[in-house]
């Protein structure tokens, strides 16, 4: 009997843990919306020529020598003055951005978003998908 009470107390102490932590607003906050939308070549084509729309080709000069989408302005993503050039664009415009396969243009859209642009569309599959 004299061991029963200490054993009972020890059992209670071992089985009682700290209270579960409550979730904070940071824990439950939704992930931020993506900076841009990936869209199909058909949807991309439908947006070209829209009011207040800027079409940007971010491929290198060697890549654009093989052809560009009509009306596109060329701003090479790999150029040292890329950020300076895109910072000169009006962030209130709608941007249609493409590269060879969609990777660099996605990064370019993220940069444009950092500069305040919010209407950003990336050509899914890039120029390769456009030509198909």
Automatic annotation (TrEMBL):
CDD domains: RHOD
Annotated keywords: Signal
Domain Rhodanese: 49-132
The UniProt record lists the keyword Signal: yes
Signal peptide: 1-19
Xref: Gene3D superfamilies: Rhodanese-like domain
Coiled coil (UniProt feature): none
Annotated protein name in UniProt: Rhodanese-like domain-containing protein
């Amino acid at each position: 009997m004299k061991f029963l009470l200490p054993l009972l107390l020890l059992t209670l102490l071992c089985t009682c843990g700290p209270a579960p932590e409550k979730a904070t607003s940071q824990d439950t906050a939704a992930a931020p919306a993506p900076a841009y939308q990936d869209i199909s070549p058909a949807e991309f084509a439908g947006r070209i020529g829209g009011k207040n729309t800027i079409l940007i080709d971010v491929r290198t000069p060697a890549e654009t020598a093989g052809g560009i989408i009509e009306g596109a302005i060329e701003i090479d993503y790999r150029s040292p003055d890329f950020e300076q050039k895109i910072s000169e664009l009006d962030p209130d415009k709608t941007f249609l951005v493409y590269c060879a396969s969609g990777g660099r243009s996605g990064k370019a859209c993220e940069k444009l978003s950092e500069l305040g642009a919010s209407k950003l569309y990336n050509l899914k599959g890039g120029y390769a998908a456009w030509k198909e």
